[in-house]
Amino acid sequence: MEFAMNVILSSVRMATPLIFLALAELYSQRAGLVHIGLEGLAAIGSLSGFLVSLITGSPLLGVAAGAAVGILVNMIYAYATINLCAEQIVYGMAINIFAPALAAFIYRVYFGAGSELVQVGLMNSLASMLGVTPTSFIGKLFLEQTPMVYLAYALVIFTAIYFNKTKSGLNYKAVGEYPKAAATLGINVVGVKYVACVICGALAGMGGAYLTTCYTTTYTDGNVAGRGFIALAAVIFGRWSAGGVLLACLFFGFCDALQIRLQVSSYGVPYQFFQMIPYIATVVVLAVIGMKKAGPKGVGKPYLREER
């Protein structure tokens, strides 16, 4: 019973960066932009959050810095794919190559090669802020979480309402479905796509910053560990809806939490075997349900205003 409760508590924390990254991809694809560069945006956001948190002593400023740098780097993708109508997959992969390399370069320039491990303080949980120590499982589940966890779940609720209950959200989705028809209705298609890139960069950067301000006390190369690709799978698994994305992220978060607990409690089994669990789950999910329903009809296609 204790093992199960620990896995559930860990699943909530492990799912949080996936939620930020998956929502980033959801906003991007709803505007017709398929973005496979989440891994790179999260990597540069992770380093930015770490450095700013180290310098200022404030994890909240670190998260804000991760969002800002994520937007800045994603503008490269935005200009290339929106203005130049370049291939979205190619530039998404370019972000995955460029951003982690830039993060590693900045880290080595700032700290020097072969430097000692540098650590920062993590963001306090709600229980610490309130000065309480929950003992029950429900109390730990709802109180022993950082503000970033509550923000992630609040964003899911906001996204569900925005896309399904507001005129602006319906116009936003129309850009991803039929951009030329949306343009005839007076919707600024290019503007919506740029807004999508800003939101995507901010959320992906926050997801990366979460790893170094709320999850681990230090930055290492490769700390994103494929979460960007898992988030991309979560959007497909969640059928391009906020509620579905949340359930998918919780499922992948559970797989990640389970493999860590199994590493700790198992003997005689190589730990690499358990590390494969989240990625095997991703492949299985995509193989089983990934192609049963397509996403927005205009996703991945360049928008040419002059084209009829």
Q: Please indicate the percent range of residues in DSSP E strands (runs of 2 or more).
A: under 5%
Question: What is the helix content?
Answer: over 70%
Helix-and-strand structural type:
mainly alpha
Q: What is the general shape? A: globular
Q: Give the low-confidence spans.
A: none
CATH superfamily: ABC transporter involved in vitamin B12 uptake, BtuC
Q: Give Rg in angstroms.
A: 20 Å
| Element-level helix/strand string | HHHHHHHHHHHHHH
DSSP helix count?
A: 14
CATH topology: ABC transporter involved in vitamin B12 uptake, BtuC
CATH architecture: Orthogonal Bundle
Q: In whole angstroms, how far apart are the ends?
A: 62 Å
User: Care to count the β-strands?
Assistant: 0
Main β-sheet, in a few words?
A: none
CATH level 1 class label: Mainly Alpha
The gist of it:
This protein has about 300 residues and is mainly α. It is about 75% helix and about 0% strand.
Topology:
Blueprint: H1 2-30, H2 38-56, H3 59-83, H4 88-111, H5 126-130, H6 137-143, H7 147-165, H8 167-177, H9 179-184, H10 189-215, H11 227-237, H12 242-265, H13 271-275, H14 277-289
